[in-house]
Amino acid sequence: MDIENTQNKRDSKKFVLTTVAGIVVFSALMWWVKQAQTPQQVQVSPTPDPEVASINQEIETINTGNLNAELEAIDKELEGL
Questions:
Q1: Is 65 left (phi over 0), alpha (psi -120 to 50) or beta?
Q2: Cβ of 26: how many Cβ atoms within 10 Å?
Q3: CA-CA distances (angstroms) from residue 67 to 24, 58, 73?
Q4: Of 31, 10, 32, 13, residue with least CA distance to 21
């Protein structure tokens, strides 16, 4: 009986190891297939648009003055109400 019990344990271990190895191989294969199907994204740098550049330059030249001083003046007027 000991020989049969030992043989069953070996067969059981082989089955478990084979199953685990099969799952690992299957998972790796599925991951590889998924990676192969995903298209690689290519980074494209936008070409500078002269119109956008001129608009940005105009925005930068706008003089906003001292906005904090203006807001403080408005706050004082509101406090007086």
A1: left
A2: 10
A3: 64, 19, 10
A4: 13
